[in-house]
Amino acid sequence: MNDKIGRNDPCPCGSGKKYKQCCGNAAATAPQSADPHAGGVESAIAWLSQHHRKAWAKAMTSAIDDAVSGIFDDEEQARKALAGMDQALWTQVQLNLIEWLLAEGFIQVTGESRPVAELLLGPRGPLLTIGQRAWIEQLARRPLRLYDVTEVVGGVGITLCDALDTAQPPLRVTERSGSRTLRVGMQIGARVMEVAGQHQLSGAIYPFSVWGGRAVQDRLRALMAGTRADNQAGISMLGHEIIEGWLQQYLVPAPLPQMVYGATGEPLLLVTEHYDVLDWEALTAALAAQPDVQGDRANGWDRLLDGADGSTRSQARITAAPRGRRVSVLYQTAGLAEQGRVWFDALAGEAVKFRLRDVSDPKGMLSRAGASGPPAAKTQALPQGLDAETLAGVIETVIKRTYANWADEPIPMLDGQTPRQAMLSEAGLERVKGLLRSYEDGESWQAAQQGRREVSYQFLWDVLGLTR
Q1: Residue closest to 30 by CA, chosen among 164, 234, 205
Q2: The pLDDT value given to residue 421
Q3: H-helix or E-strand containing 393?
Q4: Across-strand partners of 328?
Q5: DSSP states along 1-68
Q6: What's CA 133's distance to the chain center, in Å?
Q7: pLDDT, tens only, 143-181
Q8: Which helix (H) or strand (E) holds 172?
Q9: Contact 335, 264 (CB under 8 A)
Q10: What average pLDDT is seen over the chain?
């Protein structure tokens, strides 16, 4: 039990790799800092590996098994999935699970199950500085929670809002390395620590994709409804769910939910048809004569459709491009596009001339956005006949019309409150700002991809009277 592990010895976690390539590498690659607690986790790992080698190895193996047991029904599937991890992911899994063991785990010592933190802080534990002991003590008290990232200042820090307890005030976290990879709108699992009056992340971070995070949030809320989340068992259960959900993204990517148009139940597909306008007066008169069309040239027109759910939606959105040369018609399903093309061509007649059609699959676009957000922007060629400024103008008109009543509409990510209602509390105000920042972040990425200017969301900040 007191044998020291050599760097070339088999790793005690049972992976089959050398210690220096497995848990030894995970400890070596842990972030270093000049904080008073720096080196404490590494000292704890080294002490456990030396003085409780078999128990620590068994605890690590059990932690890994527990993390995948809820993902796979078959042990062979789980084994193959773990074996297929690349080195970067394997190292991150170990770092995260090592921290979980230090904070909440147990190991067997002389036939007795002992909390790892209690063992480390006991009279026979490793020699730690005051700052290192305080860090491990705090690690055992801080639960693993799910957070919304509402602001990112690269190289400085991030702002987090609790994804489950939305009444909690926002947390400004000093996080120099993570702030370079995290994006506004993401969700992460993390332990938030306090050092010298400032908040820090403990080290282990569980970033989620858009759909992965929302799915985990729903499962956590269901767990909280069925169990006490204020005792240690409930807290650990929520932490396990975060770990399992995070790992599942890499081992078994979840299928994206079916995106449908609410009025008809058809799969959502964005179809935009572009026309040259030869006679604006005739086109405007024809649209004004339609009883199911509302709007005007300055603000655009909507052909309305009453859905089976009782809601009225736009089945065709008609937008005039800047400089008055073109008009675009946006449909949200393939069926609406086919029917709408016949309707609009007959309505407009010789007042317009068809140019081109754009088709975008929202589900496919989301499937290419992983846990770290959208990929690096790469300019894409625009369809023939569509210049960058025209595209920017069309998108700007659509955005302003889409968000015209946003301030007073219930938003699911605000727990069903409107932005005006949510911003009455400190936490709600930060969530509203976070939503606006996420819109701007997404628009920045899309504009870079399409080689056009960014469309400003400043009008939403202004209508709410918010400053950045």
Answers
A1: 205
A2: 94
A3: helix 388-402
A4: 274, 319
A5: --PPPPTTSBPTTSSSSBGGGTHHHHHHTSPP-SSTTTTHHHHHHHHHHHHSHHHHHHHHHHHHHHHH
A6: 33
A7: 999 999 999 998 889 999 999 988 899 999 998 777 778
A8: strand 171-174
A9: yes
A10: 83
CA distance 124 to 134: 17
**Which pTM does this prediction carry?**
0.70
- Token pair 């809820």 is at which residue? 70
- How far apart (Å, rounded) are the C-alpha atoms in residues 79 and 419? 47
- The per-residue pLDDT for range 287-345, each reduced to its tens digit, is 999 999 999 998 889 998 876 656 677 889 899 887 778 999 999 889 999 999 999 99
- The Cα-based distances of 353 to 273, 280, 281, 382, 391 in angstroms read 11, 12, 15, 19, 18
3-state secondary structure of 206: strand
Give strand ranges (E) for 196-281: 198-208, 270-277
Can you count the helices (H) and strands (E) in the chain? 16, 13
d(CA 425, CA 444): 29
In angstroms, rounded to a whole number, what is the distance separating the alpha carbons of residues 273 and 337? 9
H/E stretch holding 401 reads helix 388-402
Distance CA 414, CA 416 (A): 5
What is the C-alpha R_g of the chain?
Answer: 27
User: Would you state the pLDDT for residue 152?
Assistant: 92
Collapse the DSSP code of 315 into the 3-class scheme (helix H, G, I; strand E, B; otherwise coil) and give the result.
Answer: strand
Instruction: Say yes or no to pLDDT of 376 above 80.
Output: no
Task: Give the CA distances from residue 197 to residues 171, 174, 194, 370, in Å, rounded to whole numbers and listed in that order.
Answer: 12, 11, 6, 34
CA–CA separation, 189 and 255 (whole Å): 21
Three-state DSSP state, 420: helix
| Residues 450, 390: Cα–Cα separation, whole Å | 12
CA–CA separation, 154 and 175 (whole Å): 9
CA neighbor of 287 nearest in space, from 309, 310, 322, 318: 318
Q: Please report, as a single letter, which amino acid is at residue 193.
A: M
